[in-house]
Amino acid sequence: MPNIIKKRNPWKNIIFFSLTTIPFFSVYYVGTVYESVSIVEMVLKGFTNTGYLLIGFSLILGPLGKFWNYFDQFLTYRKQLGIIGFMYALIHGVVGTIIYVFPNPDIIVNNYWAVALGILALYLFYICYAISEIIVIKTLGAKKWRRLIRYISYSAFILATMHIYLAKLPVWQEYIDSDIIFPPLSLILFSFGLFVLAFRFYVFIYDTFALGYATIKTLVSESRQSKD
User: Which domains does the chain have, with CATH numbers?
Assistant: First the structure.
């Protein structure tokens, strides 16, 4: 199975996958807002949430593969997931500014922190995109590059998750106070983001304790050998 997946074009596969989630998210969004929505806004929501989903997948595949070998076959998709997800998030930023901010500049004032965190997240994702070239990896070295892109990408994802929280909290409060059955799309994706971050934190703690245990075990073993 892994060999078959490697032979496929990962770019085409991720784009094809996104072409199934974009219309699904668009339709789901329209079905949960219960108000008239323009075609542009409808499609934009599809791109926005798909971008966040793809980036989340790119970050969670490594930690999942640490415990379940099944996910190892998808590790070759991490770069494509991250880059295409960033492109969709960039569409969200540009088109969202045009259709929301330009007609109503007060949005920036009323949602200052949400906007600021979103812009900063996009900038950090851009850095990840810029340093994903082979020449950068060779210059920094694979180990240093992996550590750098991990820190930047997770920092950006945390900011993006906070951006969603600050921007959509009033919508979630309205949902909680209403009789609507299906939750807002933003709340579903936010929950997914929390899972990604929580699982990454769990892996960090796991690795830290595992390293500490291995170090202590080695020291004890060396101490016994020296005594013998």
Answer: 2-227 (1.20.120)
Distance CA 57, CA 98 (A): 28
CA distance 34 to 75: 39
**Count of CB atoms situated within 10 Å of the CB of 114:** 19
d(Cα 187, Cα 183) in Å, to the nearest integer? 7
Task: Compute the chain's Rg from CA coordinates.
Answer: 21
- Give start and end residues of each alpha helix (H) in 68-184: 78-96, 106-110, 112-130, 134-140, 142-177
Q: Are 153 and 59 in contact (CB under 8 A)?
A: yes
| Whether 88 contacts 51, CB under 8 Å | yes
CA atoms within 13 A of residue 93's CA, in its CB half-sphere: 22
Q: How many CB atoms lie within 10 A of CB 160?
A: 24
* pLDDT value, residue 195: 97
As a whole number of angstroms, the distance between CA 28 and CA 173 comes to: 19
Q: Report the b/e string of 38-76 with b at 16+ CB within 10 A.
A: eeebbbbbbbbbbbbbbbbbbbbbbbbbeeeeeeebbee
Contact of 197 with 58, CB cutoff 8 Å: no
With CA atoms as reference, report the closest residue to 99 among 140, 38, 56. Answer: 38
Model pLDDT for residues 151-189, shown as the tens digit of each residue: 999 999 999 999 999 999 999 999 998 888 899 999 999
Structure tokens at 10: 């990962």
Distance between start and end Cα atoms, the chain: 50
